[in-house]
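Lab channel / #folding
Pinned by the channel admin:
"Please post every new chain as: sequence first, then the structure tokens as a reply. Keep commentary short and put observations after the output so the thread stays searchable."

First post following the new format, from NK:
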Amino acid sequence: MKTGLLIFCLIVLTACSLPRGAALQSEILKSSDDVDAPFAVYPVTRDTVDDFANWPRWQGHISWLGNTRGPSSPVIKAGDMLDLVVWDNSENSLLLTNGAKVVNLQGMTVTPDGTVFVPYIDKIYVSGQTPDAAREKIQSRLSEILPSAQVQLNYTAGTRSTVSLVGGVNAPGPIPLPDRNFSLLNLISAGGGVPATLRNPRVKLIRGGKTYVASLAEVYSNAKYDVVMQGGDKVIVEQDTRFFQALGSTGREELIYFTKDSINALEAVSLVGGIDDNRADPKGVLVLREYAASHVRSDGRGPSRTDVVFTIDLTNADGLFSARRFLIQPEDVVLVTESPVTKAQTIFRLVGSVFGVANAAQNATK
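Reply from TO:
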């Protein structure tokens, strides 16, 4: 009798002091049915996954620019530099002296009002014109006083006609715009390309006080992302800093960085090293996500709480296919819960050990 009581006490103590791994799904969701539950639970199925895709996206998401194309020639702007070369064969040229046939007028900066000063013809408005159009205009004005003059114009882009390639390429720096069709990929190429060591490179374009972000892979594959550059643009190429967190009965418990633009739930499970066959509950894959208060809805077009738990069952085809269509968002937590069977098996093993010890003790006293 005393031996049986001792065994019972040992079993109770052993069960109470079991080391814990991941939480059980039932433990995490046990208060979800309460009226004032602080979080909402949504199963991911083929009937719901498309609705979830239309819910508000990650707050860090920024749409990209539309694409435009312009004439092939650059446009003169304030701050650009013009160099004029004037040929004149007349004997009494106003510009040429000592029998010279050519004169160089260099370093003519386009003023803030869009003009340049040319001797004998005063200011000429050239802003917004192509270099060829400006050359023709200057020659037309010069021909009034120098009928035989011929004009050559060389154009150098100023800061307003230059794009700043700030970093993330092999040769960053200011890049003058050679024409109005100089695109983002042209710019990156002019900067020596992107180092292969950058993880899922993302392009950040700063224009007009706004910032736009797209992955380099998207720019490569989709022509509409290869936008035309404008003077004053700033472009930074940097590696993807988005991540989700892996917890529970997985091969890895750490921050997992995005290796491509989008990652679905099945890919996320693979990236975390899969689910532990000896511990994990494949019916209990949870995705924990936090929404902004402004995203909360009561009509089903958004979450009913700011804190949301999406549940995924990987033991049937519906769950597997739905997981492939359910996209992980940055800063999500992917939690693989522990199987309740694992806990029971652990208890049985420990109980068996206790009986073994008890039997050995009884045999020793005989």
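NK: The longest strand covers residues 280-290.
TO: also worth noting, The chain has three domains: 21-59+242-344, 81-156, 160-238.
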